[in-house]
Amino acid sequence: MTTAQQIAGFIAKFDPRMAKSIRATRAALRKLFPTAFELVYDNYNFLVFGFCSTPRASDCIVSLAANSKGLVLSFYWGATIADPHGLLQGSGSQNRFLRLEGPATLNERAVRELIRAAVEQGKVPLPASGKGETIVKSISAKQRPRK
Questions:
Q1: What confidence tier does 40 reach under pLDDT thresholds 50, 70, 90?
Q2: Rounded-to-integer distance, Cα 32 and Cα 103, Å
Q3: Rounded distance, CA 107 to CA 124, Å?
Q4: How far apart are the C-alpha atoms of 146 and 124, rounded to whole Å?
Q5: Beta carbons within 8 Å of 116's beta carbon, 6+ residues apart
Q6: 79 vs 19: CA distance, rounded Å
Q7: In what order do the strands lie in the sheet with 70-75?
Q8: Are 51 and 61 in contact (CB under 8 A)?
Q9: Helices 16-32 and 3-12 sit at what angle, rounded to 10 degrees?
Q10: pLDDT attached to residue 74
């Protein structure tokens, strides 16, 4: 099975409306990060697409996480990003997130500012050229319902 087929199967576990939103938001993020490594985790709680400067999860800039309740954009080092509009949620020592209505949320000025800040603070810069590879990193045998 190809990586694209695996990912299509992961997304197919969601109801059609959510699956459509996942596909559209993932495509929008891929346009924003064309050279990023896309790390995919189909884990117990979420289907996650991490956009990273290297194949290591610790070099993640943002992730799209989906569950039956909706989509979030997770900022791997979000605790250290300036958030003048107060969009980021979470209280951990590292990660912050914001809920997404869909791909259109990515076009909001305040969200673009957060994304830009996340790219700028990355420890390893994104590759300057090329097309980022998609890598399925893990698939959990047990998962919460996606629908």
A1: very high
A2: 11
A3: 25
A4: 33
A5: none
A6: 29
A7: 96-100, 70-75, 60-67, 47-52, 37-42, 134-139
A8: yes
A9: 140
A10: 97
Q: What is the pLDDT of residues 108-137, one digit of tens each?
A: 999 999 999 999 998 899 999 999 999 999
Contact of 134 with 27, CB cutoff 8 Å? no
Domains of the chain, by residue range, sit at 3-138
* 81, 96 Cβ separation under 8 angstroms: yes
Question: Which phi-psi region, left, alpha or beta, contains residue 78 (left: φ > 0; alpha: ψ -120 to 50)?
Answer: alpha
Q: How far apart are CA 133 and CA 90, in angstroms?
A: 29
Separation between Cα atoms, residue 72 and residue 46, nearest integer Å: 10
**Percentage, residues of the chain above pLDDT 70:** 100
Instruction: Give residue-wise pLDDT tens across range 86-98.
Output: 999 999 899 999 9
- Which H or E run includes 17? helix 16-32
Return the pLDDT at 85: 94
